[in-house]
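Reply to dn_fold:

You asked what the input looked like. This is it:
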Amino acid sequence: MEDGRARGGGVRVAMIAGVFLAMLWVAAAAVAQVSERAEPVTGPGVTTIGGISTTARINVRSGPSVVFPVVGTLGYGTRVTKGICIGGGSARWCEVKTLDGKVSGFVAGRFLVEGSAPTPDDDLAGGPDYWAVRGLAANERLGVRMEPKSGAGVLATLKNGEIVTNLGCRMTGATRWCRIRSTTGMDVTGWVAARYLRESAPPPAVMPPGSGDGGSGPGVYVVRGLAAGDFLNVRTRPSTQGDIIARLSSGTRVRNLGCEQSGQTRWCRIRTTGDVTVTGWVNGRYLREG
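and this is what came back:
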């Protein structure tokens, strides 16, 4: 009986040990699963703790050296705000602070993973002042879109050779888009596919007849290039800040009293030719020789 009890007790001990080991294995597996983490999130202006295992932590010290006391620790992937850095190479130390402000101090620079700075495409910077439309088929037109994507609404179309003002470019997916403003015809600002743009010189200045250059007197213009249903504002002075005193429809004939350049806009002083005469300033891009 004693031998039998001893054998039964041994079996129970073995079973308990097996269950315990199984529980340890499951717990270890769960810990391993929880410890799996993605790479540090990076991007413009983002700094995270990296270069260590996903379960490790680095020391944050009160000064830029291992001789300074530890004031906290940071784990893999922790986002921080980076301050000044001292030294170089393996001796580089940087001041950091967690986003919640609870931990601040110095860490070895090799543990900081920094997002790349924005490119000129991201912030719409750089590039030439003007583009010329190139590469379209004979009867093809380039759509000027409301947004930098192929499915966006078309505001206007451009043909080969037209010159536009460059307002900056950016990448959307695999396509490079440029924001432009037309320099002839109706005034349109929108996005076009950059593959149809080439660097260009400024458009030639359009000098309406009798524009103060010693010509043979005032010329007659016809209002052209307005969008359907649009009107050309006649203002009290050569500026968009001038008061609107009249509106002219497409096809209206006016007399030229001289033009002048203000920034990138050419303004012309005109007088209407109807029964009621109005004298004021209009945007010269919408005038054609009559």
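The chain has four domains: 1-29, 47-114, 130-199, 220-289.
Hope that clears it up.
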